[in-house]
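Case study 2.
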Amino acid sequence: MTPEHLSFIFDFAEDTLDKNKVLEDLSDGTLILSFSIPGRPATKKTSQRVVRRGGFTRILPSLLYEKYEKHCKSFCESVWKELQLDPIDFGIAIKLKVYLDSWIVGDECGYQQANGDIIQTHGIIKDDMWIHWIDNGEHMIHYDKENPRIEIEIKRFKHPKEAYRNEKNEKEAIKEAKKKAKTKKD
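Prediction:
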């Protein structure tokens, strides 16, 4: 069963064991996932709260954002976690469309940061540093009074840091193998 807010998810072969490896090996621009989250989107940094406890001061996101983040949980998890997919841990490009029910509009960067954090918090991506935001020459903000929502399209987009990370992982694997070999000799 696919959730009604899921527009597209990459089709894996039935015998695929390492789905993240298959996704990581895709060519740039290949669509991985497309889905929507109904409801009025919220930005993270509009109306932040300052909280003081003891000698510490913390800046918290707005109550509206916290409510929106909780609202997004079931939608994000139903398109990724419930399909037993690990968080994406490689470069991706995200096209975000924000449909608002009024012309009270936050800035684009605020919507990008908020939704990057949301899809990280709810397990679609491992780290929002992997995101490259794209717009294909279109404005991200739209008006739809009857159906406010966000539409998220995730495509493969190689990140320069992937080569460094892969090289580092290989060196650690070799080091670990040498350590195990040495332990077996003793």
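The two ends are 53 Å apart (CA to CA).
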